[in-house]
Amino acid sequence: MKVMLGISGGVDSSVAALLLQQAGHQVEGLFMQNWEEDDRSGPCTTDADRKDAVAVCGRLGIPFHARNFAAEYWDGVFAHFLAEYRAGRTPNPDVLCNREIKFKTFLDEAHALGAEKIATGHYARVDFQAGHHRLLRAVDAAKDQSYFLHALGQQQLAATLFPLGDIEKSRVRELAREAALPTHAKKDSTGICFIGERDFRSFLAQYIPARPGEMRTPAGELIGEHQGVMYYTLGQRNGLGIGGRHGAGSEAWYVVGKDVPANVLYIAQGGENRWLYSQRLQTETPNWIAGTAPAPHFRCTARTRYRQLDQACVVEVHGDRLEVRFDEPQRAVTPGQSVVFYDRDVCLGGAVIAATDAPYGGLLPAFTPSPTLPAREPPSRV
Questions:
Q1: CA dihedral in degrees (4, 133, 93, 36; nearest 10)?
Q2: Which of 16, 31, 155, 214 is exposed most, by the fewest CB atoms within 10 A?
């Protein structure tokens, strides 16, 4: 079978190519350039990554292709990224990049080049059960990336292979060394390419100019001045520029809310202060990997950020929106980020968080709880 691998120049996609080749597939590599470097881009590593991708393909003797998807990335991902920040929300571009670029634009290009399936170096698994493709967590829980893949559907999963889903990251490095792949010791990339190692606020200011305003406590006390509410996220501690204040105590200050129309940033002391906690959230239109919700209301576990441990919750479906109620209060649940649902190792899908019932979360009492919520315990991971 001809498989087109998204080869990034990193160790993960390099080993994915090796494993596909060892499995007997006809493997070809396609390098995606998703950002045009300029003076505002910072130290994006596209050129170096492309050279590494070419070297890996040369080492394995597989054809190399390269395509520039920068225009598609700008229209499908980055424009939305900026719009969300202008609205005072905190988007997750990795989720949108997977849906719009890696599993749409890349998938279409792979088919045009004659590939039957695509593959990537993501840590996740796919299987087929009861007539549906399922997205599963990776065996290596510390590297699992199913959270970022929750916006995919049946068509994408049917066409995708994840060669790294069944192995540990440490084994990936071993395989790369054993095969003398030129990327075997390469440091894992972090963050978003178009930001690189630059200060995030400096980068964002190139596209969304600073608009200074007041920093106040929830009680209304004026504490200082911020540089623009769009530059801050809930739960943020660093970068507030607040020194010691007479009578304020020694606890650190945290962002607890944003009033975008009034251009006011709300802050409070203490990482566990009540202003940061919510137990209920509402979402935008969800994506269910199976195509439909498991039930009109159901118990499961969920994550509201990538590195979070699974949290027990109840999900209620209200048309094209969801209401999620957690068993325990959650810290710094952030509109614009994604809530992703799980039944043990199976990723059910997810949605963008629209609002929460935190004091500054913007949640409206639009939904009423169902009187017939299931009482069974939520599934635990096995």
A1: 10
A2: 155
Q: Helix, strand or coil for residue 238? A: coil
Alpha carbon 365 to chain centroid, angstroms: 28
Enter the tokens of residue 375.
Answer: 């009482």
Sheet holding 213-216, edge to edge: 222-226, 213-216, 264-269, 253-259
* Alpha-carbon gap, residue 232 to 240, rounded angstroms: 9
Query: Which residues are catalytically annotated?
Result: 97, 193
* Binding-site annotation, residues: 6-13, 32, 121
Binding region for ATP: 6-13, 32, 121
Helices (H), the chain: 11-22, 46-60, 70-73, 79-86, 93-97, 106-112, 154-158, 169-178, 200-205
Instruction: Give the pTM.
Output: 0.91
Q: How far apart are the first and last CA of the chain?
A: 33
- The residues facing 220 across adjacent strands are none
Q: Tens digits of per-residue pLDDT, 32-64?
A: 999 886 654 455 678 899 999 999 999 999 999
DSSP H or E run through 128: strand 124-129
Decide: 94 and 148 in contact? Cβ < 8 Å.
yes
| 39 or 278, which is more confident | 278
Residue with tokens 């691998």: 5
Amino acid at position 193, single letter:
C
Q: Rounded to 5, what percent of the chain is helix, strand, coil?
A: 25, 30, 45
Task: Give me the amino acid identity at 93.
Answer: P
